[in-house]
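Case study 2.
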Amino acid sequence: MKTIATLSLLLISMAAQAETPQQIRQIYVTEAAIQQAGFTAAAKRGEAFYHQRFGINDKMPVCTSCHTDDPLKSGQHAVTGKAIKPLAVAANGERFSDPAKVEKWFGRNCKEVIGRACTPAEKADFVAYMSEVR
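Prediction:
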């Protein structure tokens, strides 16, 4: 129990200092490793997740419903029509640089698209893909 509390404090500290996609990905890798020993983020899994059809929401059954098949391009919210800047770090240097914003959008989008919270492993893979896509 003491180990979990210590690890939680470490993760909170890491999140407060995270400013780059790599640092944010590492936070999720560390969280995922608690559940799955030896976990490492994989951009290929992140890409598959990005294109996976969940079908929970008819208007947004997949991430690409709003973000397009190419994360290097701008998208448009499927319901509101609001413009969305590219998800890929190569096209939008602001992506995955603020831990609070990252958590906010994972929280909102995961619920809307897949019908549940994303796991730390899914988040790590997703950030890995968005960091590596060119």
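The beta strands are 75-76, 83-84.
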